[in-house]
Amino acid sequence: MAANAERLIELFHAAKTRLVGVERDAFLRDACQGDAGMEAQIRSLLAAHEEAGDFLQARPPDLAASLPTERPGDWIGRYQLLEPLGEGGCGVVYLAQQTEPVRRRVALKVIKLGMDTKAVVARFEAERQALALMDHPNIARVLDAGTTDEGKSEGRSSKTEGPSRKSESRGPMGELRPSDFALRPSPRGRPYFVMELVRGIRITEYCDQNGLSTRERLELFIQVCQAVQHAHQKGIIHRDLKPSNILVTSHDGVPVPKVIDFGIAKAVTNQRLTDQTVFTTFEQFLGTPAYMSPEQAEMSGLDVDTRSDIYSLGVLLYELLAGVTPLDARELKRAGLDELRRLIREKDPVPPSTRLTQEWARRGWGSAPAAAVGPLSPGSAPASGAAVGAPPTARDPGSRRRESGSQSSAGAGSRGREPETPEAGVLPEAEPPGRSRLREQIKLVRGDLDWIVMKCLEKDRARRYRNGQRAGG
Amino acid sequence: MGDVTQMLAAVERGERKAAADLLPLVYDELRRLAARKLASERPGQTLQATALVHEAWFRLVGREDPGWGGRTHFFAAAAEAMRRILVESARRKQRLKHGGHLERVDVEEVDIPLPMPDDELLALDEALDRLEALDARAAQMVKLCFFLGLTREQAAEELGVSLATAERIWSFARTWLFREIQGLRKERPQ
Predict the structure, then answer these.
(1) Does B37 contact chain A (CB < 8 Å)?
(2) CA distance A202 to A248
């Protein structure tokens, strides 16, 4: 073992215990005695130590089972698996063929092992009535659900799944009626969900790939808001709204966003979480914590309600407008659990227009268009007026307006007024857009849109919009 | 005297070949145990790396007593084996991501949930090799605590150092590795 390494460990430890600043500097100077290499090593370690958070601290993986056992060709209930479509955090999604009462292709998601099947099924059961009543063109229907315990080796025998699965209670297309799909919990099986097949890509990817203008992005976003609003009116909260759950398909050239997984997140995640399982939840199920509301990150057992979805919609709108999420996704990914919670709970993002203005500055295009960089001053409010004050970034409640109705309509007004910018390359990573486009972009976003986004992103849910109708204008 | 017990004794005597022979044996056993557990356990049941290793120990060494040194060598091999099993899982996950999703899944493959994103785990794996070159004891600490799930007290005992020293080594090792991985992240295109 290198004596050098041993000394490095000792000095690193000793330096850590010294106060940052003069005391630590003096210690390093004395201890390293002019060994500049050693001093640099220790300084870079001290810097890393600040940021390391809980890195490697979590106990090693609970080896929760996650071995996929289904293969193409297998039958699950009355569905035959054709091919895997993708692997999400909480399970594998297959393209599957249904043969009766209708022949059609569906998406079938098998939840990974490691979840408590009984509890998942029970939670899903509790919402089945409401889910079956959801009917919206921008929501992918949940068609069926069950457990994978039977029928794998005996082919299709499991299609007769007992009295709870009466096919005569189905609609003409085999959709679920409220009285339908009672599930049969089984200790061995895993829960699965059958959904309308949506062949689409993430909304953010769709917008980028097709170079959608801000206005076109907003049109998609409004449809998403309407879908979420519909669900909320039926008493269904999504709980996991994020780009991978909002897919855009093209119908005769017209993009149609579809929200998938309604009712599933709740069934799968709504369980008591210990710190040990929180990491798993963040990483495996929720993937990115960037879309998670403060009350969800808190895991305090506070009931999640419609306003958590509103928060996630705010994050989505932010990303659609500014090209990045309000809280830096990579910073969140790096943070340890406590730091993650703190960031989501406390860190105020800059308004989207400020983010765009920073991009303007980064490209060295001189001073920002129109007004000063940074949060709006009341004087820079757009002409549409509507008394747009400073966007609610400050944590001072007095600076925020409580009534939201007029704001959303003002937002819609300003969107309608703006000229189309066909290729407004909003995203920093996109091809360098023209200077004038980014200028238009900033003007368009600053004001009402800033305000709407920041209102959705309020840390205190009492200050957010109460429903998607308002957020979507 | 069983094979493994003899091997452990040989490692203890400093025979390099014995250490090389031991690893695949422990690796195979752990992998087999994990696969079997994952296939047969009830959903919701979780497996701990430590539990797996204890079971492997019982099966391979049984009631024989290879002594304290033998036990340490066994843990060292098991920690390295767990690291490899995790790294394989991460590689497979990456292959799936990059279009390999249609290949059939081998039932014998063990996909255990990773403690961190797959690319990060692979970066950690590489960084751990470099840490080993700098200070083998620090690398061993990470393997025991992170991959095997030993407590700091247990790891201190295995390394034959005081708890305070173990804590220092651990703090240094994880900071050092974090710095290395951070560097990798910055080099990577977004």
Answers:
(1) yes
(2) 6
- The tens digit of pLDDT for each residue in A325-384 reads 998 877 776 666 677 778 888 889 999 999 999 888 888 877 766 554 444 433 333 333
Kindly indicate whether the domain formed by A75-197 is annotated with CATH number 3.30.200.20.
yes
What residue spans in chain B does CATH classification 1.10.10.10 cover? 115-190
Within an 8 Å CB–CB cutoff, is residue B159 touching chain A? no
Give the residue from A49, A67, A147 with the most B CB atoms within 10 Å of its CB, the best one to mutate.
A67
Place of tokens 């008493």: A235
Residues 175 to 234 of A: which have CB under 8 A from any B CB? 187-190
Residue A143 burial (CB count, 10 A): 25
**Residue from A451, A456, A459, A324 nearest A376 by CA:** A451
A203/A224 Cα distance (integer angstroms): 10
Task: Please give the structure tokens belonging to residue A365.
Answer: 């295009």
- Same fold: A75-197 with A214-471: no
When the candidates are 2.40.30.10, 2.30.290.10, 1.10.150.110, 1.10.10.10, the CATH number that belongs to B115-190 is 1.10.10.10
Distances (CA, A) of A369 to A60, A215, A356, A395: 51, 20, 11, 27
The answer to whether residue A270 neighbours chain B at the CB level (below 8 Å) is no
More confident residue, A323 or A420: A323
Burial group, residue B55, by CB count within 10 angstroms (0-12, 13-18, 19+): middle
Interface test with chain B among A11, A56, A340, by most B beta carbons within 10 Å: A56
Tell me which long-range contacts B9-15 makes (C-beta under 8 A, separation of at least 24). Answer: B9/B66, B9/B67, B9/B70, B11/B70, B11/B73, B12/B66, B12/B67, B12/B69, B12/B70, B12/B73
DSSP-assigned beta bridge partners for residue A446:
none
Q: Look at the block and give the residue holding tokens 């690319």.
A: B119
Q: Find the CB nearest B172 among A12, A60, A115.
A: A12
Peptide bond into A178 cis (omega under 30): no
- Give domain limits for chain A: 3-52, 75-197, 214-471
Chain A, nearest residue to B112 by Cα: A63
* ipTM for the whole predicted complex goes beyond 0.95: no
As beta bridge partners, residue A95 has A83, A107
- The architecture (CATH level 2) of A214-471 comes to Orthogonal Bundle (1.10)
Tens digit of pLDDT for each residue in A399-449?
Answer: 333 333 333 333 333 333 333 343 444 454 444 556 788 888 888 898 889
